[in-house]
Design goal:
globular; 22 helices; 482 residues; Rossmann fold; alpha/beta; GMP Synthetase, Chain A, domain 3; 3-stranded mixed sheet
Length: 482
């Protein structure tokens, strides 16, 4: 393993952030440590005073080892050396130990004896000890120390637009890899996909603490692969990081599209886990069929399990989410204010919760009572200038003109072919260019939620099969947006 002088700085930064040590503890025991050498199996660390090296070895071995793993993606054992050795003598000692495994007593060395990381793996017995992770934790490659403990199914507010996604995730958490594998969740940003991923992991670990779970964002997977290649690290360390788990959660998988090497690596990771009957859960901002520059073999695998669309929340769900957020902040928000906020913030749960946070801030900082006037002040820069009703009206006008039908026809019950086509196209366009959920769209057509979903799928199918029809619909969308 190539020695990189930046490695130790990253290791210490990771310990400083993630281990919750006081400044004094970190300064006394860690700041004076130095990385003297690195091989595939060992990290050689020197301590300025022997007693400090011995103390770190006894008390903080795991924290130091985990920090090196998070930096390198490789599990190495630690050898603590005395800095009393001359530099040349220390390097000779490291070179000898890497070949023979011998270290002289006078070098003041602390060498681990355990083989506690041995586990089933396609690697050799020697390699297994250095790549295995502790069990019973959600292993995340996001910000150190952030494990998603606060995200559970209990605090996920369920409505008609996200019920199927919620129920599918609950079923998987109860029986990983036994119901739907893979599960593919898609929606615009801010609809609760990440919340559900963390809720799955927390629920699995609550009932089965020995399960090994890895969460990663698609962009981070790509960056880690690039870093692994640049630093010329052995690829099996990177692969074991993602293939030696029981559950793999990948957020925003769309970021691997168009990246050939990343897709190839993820393809083999996906297959390795699937063949071992390990659970795979993916999220994206769009369904697999709409992911441009995604290899067909990846697309078919993503589509082989259950795909669930999380739609923008309906009004009742938005009110419930706003009320839940207010309760969590111990805010007393009048019902008319909750309704006002929910009626105007439609496209994102994250944005909705942000407005409640903003209300909290305005109220606390300026000492104002939370009322309708304060709410209007808080969201004046968020509310879209163009009303949804005017967009719906223009959509009806353009579609009716195109297909030579009346508005009363497409909002009514007649089943004449050209009327049905116009009705379906209008439904599809409203779903594409507004933040209305399918339930809200259904109200404009006096239909139920399932009929709207069926109409949208019908148009999507025709678009896939007929380029001329696709251009027809695209042209209408351009006219409406003008």
């Amino acid at each position: 393993m190539e020695l990189n002088h930046n490695i130790w700085k990253h290791v210490l930064d990771h310990i400083r952030v993630s281990a919750n040590f006081s400044g004094a503890t970190f300064s006394i025991w860690f700041e004076e440590l130095q990385l003297e050498g690195l091989t595939d199996s060992f990290a050689y660390i020197s301590a300025k005073e022997n007693y400090k090296g011995e103390f770190v070895f006894k008390m903080y071995y795991k924290q130091l080892q985990n920090a090196i793993f998070e930096t390198l993606g490789a599990r190495v054992e630690l050898v603590i050396l005395s800095r009393d050795l001359h530099r040349e003598g220390m390097q000779d000692l490291i070179a000898k130990h890497s070949v023979t495994g011998d270290l002289p007593d006078k070098a003041f060395c602390k060498v681990p004896k355990s083989e506690e990381y041995a586990a089933e793996s396609p690697l050799s017995d020697e390699e297994k000890k250095h790549v295995e992770e502790p069990v019973g934790t959600l292993i995340t490659t996001e910000i150190p120390g952030v494990r998603g403990e606060g995200y559970t199914f209990d605090n996920f507010i369920v409505g008609e637009t996200n019920r199927m996604a919620h129920d599918a995730c609950v079923a998987i958490a109860k029986n990983p890899a036994e119901v739907w594998n893979p599960l593919f969740l898609y929606s615009p940003s801010g609809m609760g996909k990440t919340h559900l991923l963390y809720a799955i992991s927390n629920e699995i670990l609550r009932h089965n603490p020995s399960k090994r779970i890895r969460y990663v964002r698609g962009e981070d997977f790509t960056n880690q692969l690039i870093d692994n290649l640049i630093q010329k690290k052995p690829m099996h360390y990177f692969r074991e990081r993602y293939r030696n788990v029981d559950v793999l959660l990948v957020d925003d998988i769309q970021f691997i599209a168009g990246k050939e090497s990343t897709q190839q690596e993820f393809f083999h990771t996906f297959d390795a886990l699937y063949q071992q009957n390990k659970q795979i859960i993916l999220t994206s901002d769009r369904p697999p069929r709409e992911l441009k520059h995604l290899e067909d073999r990846m697309r078919t695998r993503f589509e082989s399990g259950l795909q669930v669309d999380i739609q923008p929340p309906e009004l009742e769900l938005r009110i419930a989410i706003a009320a839940s957020k207010a309760k969590a902040l111990n805010l007393d928000i009048p019902e008319n204010v909750l309704h006002f906020v929910a009626e105007n913030i439609k496209s994102s749960i994250r944005q909705l919760e942000g407005v409640i946070n903003r209300l909290h801030g305005y109220s606390t900082i300026f000492g104002k009572k939370i009322d309708l006037e304060l709410a209007q002040t808080c969201i004046h820069d968020i509310i879209p200038v163009k009303s949804v009703d005017s967009t719906v009206e223009k959509t009806f006008d353009k579609v009716c003109e195109k297909y030579q039908v009346g508005v009363q026809d497409i909002t009514g019950k007649r089943r004449q072919a050209n009327i049905v086509t116009a009705r379906h196209v209008a439904t599809y366009i409203l779903r594409q260019i507004t933040d209305l959920s399918s339930i809200e769209i259904a109200r404009y057509f006096s239909q139920d939620h399932s009929s709207i979903l069926s109409a949208i799928k019908n148009v999507e199918k025709k678009i896939d099969e007929n380029p001329a029809f696709e251009e027809e619909v695209t042209g209408l969308i351009r006219q409406i947006r003008e």
